[in-house]
Each structure stands twice: as C-alpha cells, then as structure tokens.
C-alpha cells in the first residue's frame, strides 16, 4: 500500500471513496473517523444495526460490551448474530460480524456486564459512548460514567411503537440526570422483553398489528441506524450532532419530531456546578437500588 | 382555549390509548392558563387510570418529559409556563428498552 | 422436533417467540410468513438491511437478484457483504449472510441482471416483490412485470437526503405507471453512484455535511428497514400496508410524512382498463430506450 | 393568499436549495387561484434555473409528484385544483436510487 502525502493507503482510499467525495469531509473527515474510538454498550436490537454501520464506516477502534449469550429467540431481530454463535457470547458474535465486514479496524471485546466496578476502566479508553442497553439502572450508570470521564453519550431507546434518540453530555448540553434527576417509578422501568412501558397486558390488546410489527423490530432498526449516524457526526467533528435536542420517533403515526431540550442544569447531581460525582462516588453508587430495578433479569418464557 | 395535547412513550395508555387530544380548556377570569392549571385539568378530564403514573404532587412524575410547542418546559418556566390558544403540549415518558 | 397441533416445531416456536406473543398475529401470522416467498431485486444499500430483517423474521423462501460483484468500495454502507466475498457475486454474498442468521428458510440465488428475458420466469415463483434497485429503467421493468403477474411491489428509493417508500399494484392501489406514465427526462434519471437527482456538481456544494452523511448511508438504512416491514405486513396479511399511500423521508429536516396517492388509473398503459400489457408485450419492451437510461453503468472512479 | 410550498427529491436545487417557501400569491379579481395559476407563479418567482426540470408545457414535467395538503393532486382535479389560504403544496421528484 502506497501513501501519497494524505496518510491514507490506496486500499483505504478505495474502500471509503464515497466518503472522500463529500465536500467538507474528504480525507480529513475520514482520517478523523479512523483515529476515533467508540464504545457500544449492548449488542441487541439497537446495537446490531449500530455496530454494523459503525464498523462499515471505518471507526478506527470499536469496543463492544455485553454479558449476554446469543439465544435462538434473539435472532428474529438482532441481525448481527449468526446461528453459529448460539450459546456463545453476544460480544464474540458481534465482533466476528464486524471484523468480517471490515478487518482494517480494531475491535475490542468485553464479555461482561457493564458495572460500576469495571465501567471507568473500560470507558476511559474510548472517545464516544453509544448506549444500546435496555434497562433503567444501566442508563443512569452509563450517563454518570460519561459525566465523570467527560465523554459524549449517544443514547437510543426503543419500546413498543416509540423510539427516542439524543446526545447527552456534549457541547454544553444536558446529561441524562439533568433531564431526569429522579428515577421513574419502578413499574415504568420494565425491560424491553417485558413488552412496553406499562406492561404487556395493557399495551398489546390496544395495539393494532401493524404497530406490533414495529414493536418487534422496526423501531430498534431505525433508531440503531440513526445512533450510528450521530456517533459518526461527533467522531468526524462535522455536522450538527443532536445535542440539546431529542428525536422522537412515533412509528404508529410514522412521525419523527425533533424537540429542543433544556441546557445543562446547574443543580444536576452528576454534572451541575456543585456536583461531587467523583470516580469514587460513582463506584459506590447502587444503581439497582436507586431505580428499584435489577440490571438484568431472567428472560420471559413462552408456552403454547 | 383550544389546545392540542399529545401523549407518548406509553403515557397514552393512561388515556384509553389515544395519543392526540384536541381539547378546549376553560379559563376562569382574566388569569392566563398555566401548565399547573393544565396538569390538574388533564388529571381530571383525560387520565382514566393510575394517575400516579402521570403525576406526583402537583407536577408530572419523574421520567416524564413535558414539551410546549416542541420545547422542553424547563425553558418556559415549568409549572408557571403560560399557555396561548393553539399551543401544542406533549407528555412523553422516557424509554429504557433497546 | 415435536409438533403439537399448530404445525410449528418447538425450535421454530422458540426462535419466533416474540412474534408469537403478539395478539392477532400468533401462530397463524408466523405460519403465513413461513409459507410466503419474497423476491428482493438488488442487494446493495437498500437490499442489505431489507434482506437481513426478512431472513431474520422467517420468510419461508427468499429470492435475491443482482448481477453485480462485491467491491471494496461497497462495504462502507452495504452492510450485508463481508470482505471474504470481494470479487464474488453480491447474491452469493447476501445469501450466505442470510443463511448464517437463519438456516431454516430457503434462499434462492439469481446471479444475473433482472431483464425482460428472465423477469417473468423468476418473478412468477414469488408472492411479493421488493424493488431495491437504483435506476429508472429497472423500476419501470419491475413494475410492469409485477402488473403482468399480479404481484404486490414494495418499492423503496433513496437519493441524497430523501427517501421514498410505497406499495404498488396491491389491493386496488396504483402501479408505478399510474403515477408516472411518462419517464422523467434522462438527466433526472441518474444512478445512485452519480450522487443525486440532478447531478453531483449541483447537489454537494449546497449540502451541509451532516446531510451528506445521510446521503452516504442513513437514508438507505432507514428505508431498507421499512421495506422489510411493509413486506412483512403483506406476507402475514395483517396490518395496513402502505398501499395507495407514500412515505416520504426527508433526512435533512428529519421529517417523515405519509401522503395519499391517486387510485389505479383507468388509462394506465400497464394496469388500466384497456391495457394490453401481456407477457409478450413486456418481453419486447425496450426499457433503456423508454427511459433513455442504461440499465447498468460503469462505476465512477476516484482519483486523489 | 398565503401558501406554503415545499420542494423535495432534488427539485429544491432549482430554487437555490431552499426546501420550504412561505409565499403570498396575489389573486387577480374574484377568480379562485388554481394549481395552473400557481405553477406559472412558481416558474416566474421561484425557479432560478433549468425550468425544464420543473415544467413541461403548462404542467409539471414527468416524474414530479404534486401534493395539495398531503394528497396527490389527481384527487383534487390536477391543474384545476383550487387553492385556499394556508394550503400546503408539495412538489417532489420521484427517486430511482437505492
Ligand atoms: Zn447533568
Ligand atoms: Zn397502473
């Protein structure tokens, strides 16, 4: 591979030629991507498309965290996982898929739950964090860790017919705790597999089936794609990232709206003026107790 | 005063799964309608079950984002925000799933 | 694998358990999916996510048509193709990826251009057609073939910052020719690789970079996901497919709008009352001449 | 008469890359403004280059979809469609890429 002043080999130039053709992006923008590192927490419904697009686009170093194992009943929508990996870690499976589409980037595997005990060490190695998890305590923990370490957080969520996307802790914008200082009641914290914000029993009978399909995979697919896009904007330092704004996707009425959020709160316990959220405080914080919700639960069983 | 109220992120389930409500809210006297007034109107007239999933004290419960004309209500004074005819108010529950 | 009255093996039940939990869908809906067959024409930017989600969801038989070969400069956004397949047919590559995530479905490979000479024979074997191609003559040809054979057509398109999605020739709704009886001027027919409806020179300088990213992959990712969703609605015969309506995605303003289209036109040359669009007429129709645009062109080269 | 005009699918490039135009179109006499009138107004006032990419004869060129208040103009009478104050008219070019 020959270099000709711009620091990119001819293979790299050919691979990303569509990027390089973009004005204001070009070699500089692609070099920024290749030099940047992104940590994706969660390799499920949101993480699947996000990881594939991030690997394809040429993020230099990609970290993947998940403690789960690939199960047959994940495969109907977690499109990054191949059958050959059933019973093996989701991280190993996702990493193999990313390497297969782009061997020129570095992929780091964390086959463990993201917890206060390992969070600081893992996250400190990355520039940007993508939250693709599925429960309330993880969302608070990831936010606080980003604040402690000063990392921008690309946060996506999908339940039922609704999707949400924003960037926290970036460019003077708010963090998750600025918006939601107190945790919601634990009945509103149910996990993805429990089918909806207010419980499966209420959601489904009132939902028509075309909506139900979105529920199964449409919303995570779309939000996961857009999470990768926002991460790319931050990594390449071009474009206007979705900071201080939130994208709300309503699949039922097929509406996307972007709303303006408050700025960073002076009184925020994590990022406010008098906040004392040190690494030490973070490591001793009990997120399960705070949200009254476990970090992981046993999967639901189906009997026919 | 005519307002459009929208519920999302699961909150619509508290009002018979209807997401958009075009409503007419009476004002008493000369005083402008505030978000505080509206919340109590919503609780009385629209919330059909489990009001504790919508309100806590005289504000919304933790985890609910309130938007007045697509702007976070923190920017317009929260409970003191005054409303105008044809304003759009959105109540949305933060999601955790993925 | 044991059967217990509903005709689905226990492995199948476990794999699709999230689907089976949906009311109004359940075993019947999943059986419909497993019995149905979908032909996806084009395994590029739109076809990549569409094929992965269709395979994952359990469409019984999936056909893939494409004459192209995987090239290194496809990989930055055509996320279905692994490096190991560079130089091999896109169909072979896409089929391998689909089999890897779901070996229980049947996948049929057509490593050839979709042309009037083979179109009728190939398409007649499928219930539903997904148009994921990138040029005007193919869009007319695929439409006409669907009309001749009476197949619903899930049509997606993505150029620059715009995406469009609808179902043609379904449930009394219009076909592509009902909407667009005459072809657009050939200067408006440029291919995806030529960067935009009105040519690369005009589009890019006026486009900001955050938009340019959508151009690279955001729009095809989102539209491809939604094409799979619409195909699923038709295949399972539940929900309200996007027939007689069109979804317009404007990535710049992050807006999705759904508009109402005209009904089937009585005067349509393909599907109208007095139309004589027989298989014979179809086979002799010159689509390249009609649209003044070639069915395929040499890829653009980049020099730095 | 106040109208909102939107251009998409690349047609915005003919009007200096501006997608949304809030315009005020004068009516002459008592006659209602029709889409035919509007097209000629747009051609004169908004289209800055290559008008043949927008119009053909006195209608839009092939491949352009026209929507009046989110409905295909075939449903409202095409060129004869009459417009009301605050109507939204969208011109969108069909896309072929993928
Ligand atoms: Zn904060
Ligand atoms: Zn027709």
Automatic annotation (TrEMBL), chains B, D:
Q: Which residues carry this modification: 1-thioglycine?
A: 98
Q: Sorted alphabetically, which keywords does the UniProt record give?
A: Cytoplasm, Isopeptide bond, tRNA processing, Ubl conjugation pathway
- What InterPro entries does the entry give? Beta-grasp_dom_sf (IPR012675), Mopterin_synth/thiamin_S_b (IPR016155), Urm1 (IPR015221)
Q: Name one Pfam family in it.
A: Urm1
Q: Where does this protein act, in terms of pathway?
A: tRNA modification; 5-methoxycarbonylmethyl-2-thiouridine-tRNA biosynthesis
Q: A GO biological process this protein is involved in?
A: tRNA wobble uridine modification
Q: Name one GO cellular component term.
A: cytosol
Q: How is it modified after translation?
A: C-terminal thiocarboxylation occurs in 2 steps, it is first acyl-adenylated (-COAMP) via the hesA/moeB/thiF part of the MOCS3/UBA4 homolog, then thiocarboxylated (-COSH) via the rhodanese domain of the MOCS3/UBA4 homolog.
Sites of the Glycyl lysine isopeptide (Gly-Lys) (interchain with K-? in acceptor proteins) crosslink: 98
The record's subcellular location field reads: Cytoplasm
Instruction: Give the family per the record.
Output: Belongs to the URM1 family.
Biological role: Acts as a sulfur carrier required for 2-thiolation of mcm(5)S(2)U at tRNA wobble positions of cytosolic tRNA(Lys), tRNA(Glu) and tRNA(Gln). Serves as sulfur donor in tRNA 2-thiolation reaction by being thiocarboxylated (-COSH) at its C-terminus by MOCS3. The sulfur is then transferred to tRNA to form 2-thiolation of mcm(5)S(2)U. Also acts as a ubiquitin-like protein (UBL) that is covalently conjugated via an isopeptide bond to lysine residues of target proteins.
Entry protein name: Ubiquitin-related modifier 1 homolog
Q: Which organism is it from?
A: Papaver somniferum
What does UniProt list as this organism's lineage? Eukaryota, Viridiplantae, Streptophyta, Embryophyta, Tracheophyta
